[in-house]
Amino acid sequence: MKKHVWFKKQTLVFISIIIVSCGQVKDETVLTIAISSDIRGFDPAMAVDIRTGGVISLVYDHLVRFGSGTELLSSIAKDWSISEDGRTYTFSMNPSARFHDETYILAQDVIFSIKRVLDPTNHSPQTWLFDKIVGAKEFMEGKTKEIKGLEARNDYTLRIEIIKPFAPFIQYLAMPSAAIVNSSKSDKIRNVPAGSGPWKLDYWEKDGELVFSRNDDYWGEPPIMSGLKIRILSETLTQSAEFEVGNLDIFNIPALELLQWTQKKEWRDNIFSIDELNIWYIAMNCSRKPFDDVRVRKAMNISLDREKILRLLLANTGIQASGPVPPLLLRNSPPNPYPYDPALAIELLKSAGHGNGFQTKLWAAGGSEIFHVLEAFQSYWGAIGIEVEIMRSDWNVFKTAVRAGRPDLYYLDWFADYPDGENFLFPLFHSSESMTKRNRYKNSEVDKLIETIQLLPIGNQRDSLIEKTNRVIFNEAPWVFLWHSQTNMVTQSTITGYVPKTIFNSERYTNIVRK
Amino acid sequence: MVHFIVRRILQTIPVLFGVIVITFILMYLVPGDPVVSMVGERYDEETIHKLRKELHLDDSLPMQFVHYVSNVLRGDFGKSFVTGGPVSEELLIKLPNTLILAVASMIIAIITGLTMGIVSSLRPQSILDKITMLFALAGISVPVFWVGLMLVLFIGVFLQWLPPTGFGGIEYIILPAITLGLRSAAYLARLTRATMLDVLNQDYIRTARMKMLPEWKVILKHGFPNILIPIITVIGTDFGSYLSGAVLTESIFGWPGIGRYALEAILKRDFPVIQGTVLFMALMFILANLIVDIFYGIVDPRIRIEGKNG
Question: Is A406 in the B-facing interface, judged by CB distances under 8 Å?
């Protein structure tokens, strides 16, 4: 009998412990967000993906940085000047800026950081950012130990000289791989950041979470919240569940769920939408039949009812694309999108000698959330006699195939590295890029236009040329231009100060506060 | 017993070597290129060429194999192509998380499975038996990811009794452990019921009952030990598979274990991590089976003696 009572008591104690431990005490001063997979590490030289780039920007600073929109702001460089020939940049650095270990950020640190990216022993895939600097090629080939075009005039004045004028170079300096690294702390940089940013890393449980605390000694404006937790949750459903129970403060709503979220009373007023700098497209292999014929490519474009697909399948979370460059980066309105005209599409196919249609394959990678859209394309193309087989594969197989030029058609997106029209032209349509890693499009007029854009300073002439190139590419239709998508974020009602950002690495979570 | 264990350990060597050979060959047969996952979108051909050279991907297959095996023999599984971290170190970091989940799942499976099985066998064809067996059938039939998602939704979101996902304290382990342990629990329940029913019809049980022993003593002292061999087999093999990571459960619940590590590596063609995790999983499975064999020897001395004679 006594044993029975003892057992009951122990059981009660055990249950109480579980209940108490389950009553989570939420730290109100910590902001919690989620990303879908882990970062590659804290080495800016290896930051090639959006997630890693975003986290790098929390713990590092740059000479310049992007604002909420497409504007460029001063950062470690309090001001800068560009020579008349557009080749020499002189930066005047903030003398009060310090790394996390309290040492001052000097011009030599910036030079060290750029050299790290270019150093051939580091095998950084980001050398394209700095290979335009005078002497960079020789340094990369191991012929010199210094880079001629980098000069620290004194501790706080830096001069960078590039081979040819290139207006977006200043924007390159705001990208994740251009982060300024503390030269004395870079030995464990893959796991431990060596930066100066507004957040300091407390710990990193790989595939679990990244926990940061506020850098109270930040040289700029420190974050309002005392901590930032980034959880790694690969499933959208679990992210959504965590948000609903209040364990996440900000959640990126998938397009398919937007309608459902806007109908929820408690959150509909906290949904933020932003037009992102991106393009979703279907690339056509322009170097072989049948897509070497512009009539076939145009038929592919006008046989899709984009407006309907966007409205019915994607909850209107985008605008129809008319060329690769997003409207935000064009001074004037872009041309009208291709209309939905299946009758004309059939005529075009007939005139191209494909009156009986043809069979082709569309490659796509990624999760299942997009396949209903691809099936809609398949149906539209089927209606004009083009039989399309969808080839699903994982990302690696897909990318390897695209690089080798195997797919006739592939579905992909492009997100801006920096907010400039050139970023949507050179890497995607210049023949040196397209013929080796993309859809094998070659047009000497487009090449020349892009090369001219690269040499021109910011201004009307450059803007007009970007618009012209966009129009030429639109008329050539090397892609099926789909849409520029919108991102929708929802925050808890207790969160204020959140402003969605156009460029991914400008989000630093410094102005957010919990009511 | 020592002889038995040594012999079993020696038998694992050719198995592990086979695993290394098969994994290695499969790596190079699957389509895709690991370097493509490493370079982002703005790479140039020279970067690709340099990286392939650095990672020995352009060496001949036999050369790469010799290089890999010699490193493995020194305990070096290589470095991740993606993060640059040593694979053995990263595996050791993730092992405790996987171990915690495996143990918790097994505890749930053993307690519920055995209890349900024994209770059912005592009242065969009763309502209780039918409900229990229906539950067991459902447990075996429903997919793990569905159970996981339902638990996240109902327990985590609607009832808010437990955090839907994550890791940390005891509250985080319960849902993933139920998800992972449910199938074993169901299988154990069916197995326990069937074997127990068989044992309860044996002569020695009738003898025990005739000796007027209390029923619980008949069941636990005379019946239960005689169903242990198949039970231990199931527990051992399931535990071995849990230790090698539970990809779906870990992905749904954001649990930073070996299964998720392996999945990410497969998607990124991170060869050293794939090879390291597969080898590690094989090792865990072999170890679990070895422990089961040792337990056989303890539970049933005839096996030990036969092993010795054989």
Answer: no
